[in-house]
Amino acid sequence: MYKYMTEQLHSYNPVEVLDDDEDDIDETNPATILASALKTLETLKNDLDDLTKTQEPAEFYRSFEKLMRNINYLAEFIAQGDNSGLFNIRALTQFLNSAGYLFNVLQLHDKKSRSFEEYFEIMTNLSQETRFNLIEQPETGVMITSPNEVRGLKFKHVFICALNDGDFPTRYRPGIFKYDGASEQIRKHSAEERILFYQALSSWKGKNDGKLF
């Protein structure tokens, strides 16, 4: 794409070098549009150069951290100053922490060099699996979550839904690769469901501060 757009830009003869500070730039001129797009592609190419080479996990993650610093997303999120900014900061921070841990493990136990495509697939899967909680913000609305996601959080009002056999507690399903016997698996499942229910109850601040439904 970069090569193609460069060729297209050079096909306009002559091509004037445009100053970004000029007020009379014709934004409808094809050469101007191509020059602007090419400038963006050059920036992307320079930012991604260190990531696209075949390298070990530690080298790739160092390059990725450098890219995150150059992009400076965190500063942009902080400048938003609203709930979406807090959400984005927490999401990005949790993703970077998970990526740092994953690439450290890869470097220690499977440090073979990989292509950019392989690392891209790893990062994509990681972004889909990364989970995080937002600290409760007073008077900001309703948080819909699961019992195993409220650990350590406190809420004024708590609604525990679907308290029916088969829903919560969930119905026991035999584990394919577990060989400790059906009765032991059922016992463990029941204990896990009790812990989840206790965590859900513990997220309520108490009857003096709100209500539990």
Descriptive overview:
The chain has 213 residues and is mostly helical. It folds into three domains: 1-47, no CATH class; 53-132, no CATH class; 147-202, no CATH class. 55% of the residues lie in helices and 0% in strands. Helix 1 (2-10) packs antiparallel against helix 2 (30-52) and helix 3 (57-71) runs antiparallel to helix 5 (83-109). The longest helix is centred in the middle third of the chain and has 27 residues, at 83-109. The N and C termini lie far apart (57 Å).
Indicate the topology.
Blueprint: H1 2-10, H2 30-52, H3 57-71, H4 73-80, H5 83-109, H6 116-129, H7 182-202
Question: Could you list some keywords that capture this structure?
Answer:
3 domains, mainly alpha
Helix content: 40-55%
Morphology: extended
Beta strands, count: 0
**Using only CA atoms, what is the Rg?**
26 Å
Order of helices and strands: HHHHHHH
- Rounded to the nearest angstrom, the distance between the terminal CA atoms is 57 Å
Largest sheet: none
So how many helices? 7
Number of domains: 3
Strand content range: under 5%
Average pLDDT number = 77
Uncertain spans: 13-18
What structural class results from the helix and strand content? mainly alpha
